[in-house]
């Protein structure tokens, strides 16, 4: 079974590509998380978690849902992580997660996809995004082939920087950066409610036909990047930046 969490479409695209090759069923973690659904999941095949990389580890919201959800059937797990550059030392923490779940850890695959984190970085324009995805295709196909065969993902060489990024930087990232208070809607907002529907944490509501953000946020960038009017900004960091959605 392939389970994915996705804000702007990169991980969803990878998950669907892999499912097309392996023939596995596919499940959106976004929907389960939004509904606070932690009911049992059964899979006869290995579990394949396809997730973005947040500060060189899997998103905490996805990890928490995995911890709380009971899984039965095949006790093996793969992790496929989309990233803008590197997954760092994410594997260390995924091994720990698998130990706690009593799963056999089959490794983590790193898939470099277009950057979407416009709260800090620049996202590529559509044509460049398509080129990045084209370059990612061999890595996606290789990961799918390994999953289909039931083999292990190759082990990543870990640098000192990887260790620092996935530990100290990740620990600082959430309390210092991941906050919703800087999101705002400009006067061009039409009140369509797309941001409300896209938020995996039910953190957005409409008040006087304008979105209002609560205190729960994972910085998935779905609200700001999927706004059809491009009316949402994140402080001054997002002004004039490309809004990214996976073009595939």
From TrEMBL:
<dbReference type="GO" id="GO:0046872">
    <property type="term" value="F:metal ion binding"/>
</dbReference>
<dbReference type="GO" id="GO:0051536">
    <property type="term" value="F:iron-sulfur cluster binding"/>
</dbReference>
<keyword id="KW-0411">Iron-sulfur</keyword>
<protein>
    <submittedName>
        <fullName>4Fe-4S binding domain-containing protein</fullName>
    </submittedName>
</protein>
<dbReference type="InterPro" id="IPR017900">
    <property type="entry name" value="4Fe4S_Fe_S_CS"/>
</dbReference>
<feature type="domain" description="4Fe-4S ferredoxin-type">
    <location>
        <begin position="180"/>
        <end position="209"/>
    </location>
</feature>
<dbReference type="InterPro" id="IPR047964">
    <property type="entry name" value="EFR1-like"/>
</dbReference>
<feature type="domain" description="4Fe-4S ferredoxin-type">
    <location>
        <begin position="210"/>
        <end position="237"/>
    </location>
</feature>
<dbReference type="InterPro" id="IPR017896">
    <property type="entry name" value="4Fe4S_Fe-S-bd"/>
</dbReference>
<dbReference type="Pfam" id="PF12724">
    <property type="entry name" value="Flavodoxin_5"/>
</dbReference>
<dbReference type="Pfam" id="PF13187">
    <property type="entry name" value="Fer4_9"/>
</dbReference>
<dbReference type="InterPro" id="IPR026816">
    <property type="entry name" value="Flavodoxin_dom"/>
</dbReference>
<keyword id="KW-0479">Metal-binding</keyword>
<dbReference type="InterPro" id="IPR029039">
    <property type="entry name" value="Flavoprotein-like_sf"/>
</dbReference>
<keyword id="KW-0408">Iron</keyword>
